[in-house]
Amino acid sequence: MSSSGGARPRWSRAGDRLFYLEGNDLMEVEVKLGKTPWLGTPRVRIQGGPARLQLGVGYDVAPDGSGFVAIREVEDPKATIPALTLVERWFEEFRPGAGK
């Protein structure tokens, strides 16, 4: 796969691709497992540096492999970070008779 090493590997749900970090870039390589495993040529999926992504902190792959979730560095260091509100069991709000 990588002759220069890699970190934080993630398999695609189908098990046919492996994603990993090389520096601050997210790489992808096609994998075919079997009696003789086959590895494709690695390619850069996301250049983390220009996108200001902090992939080393963590990332995940969408179930279909078409997208990614990553932390992005705040553009303005003076900007306030919006609050995150976590609502547990929110389906209960829509149950008939709720809120009476």
Description:
It is a single chain. The protein is mainly β and 100 residues long. The chain has a domain at 7-70. The chain is built from no helices and seven strands. The protein has strands at residues 7-11, 17-22, 25-32, 38-39, 43-47, 59-61, 68-70. Strands 1, 2, 3, 4 and 5 form a five-stranded antiparallel β-sheet that branches. Strands 6-7 form a two-stranded antiparallel sheet. A hairpin with a 5-residue loop joins strand 3 and strand 4. It is flat and about 65 Å long. The termini are far apart. The mean pLDDT is 80.
Proportion of residues in helical segments: under 10%
Characterize the quaternary organization of these chains: single chain
Number of DSSP strand runs = 7
Query: What is the H/E order?
Result: EEEEEEE
Low-confidence stretches: none
**Mean pLDDT score:** 80
Radius of gyration based on Cα positions: 19 Å
Largest sheet: 5 strands, antiparallel
Q: Tally the helices: what do you get? A: 0
Structural class: mainly beta
- In whole angstroms, how far apart are the ends? 60 Å
How would you describe the shape?
A: flat
- Per DSSP, what share of the residues sits in E-state strands of 2 or more residues? 25-35%
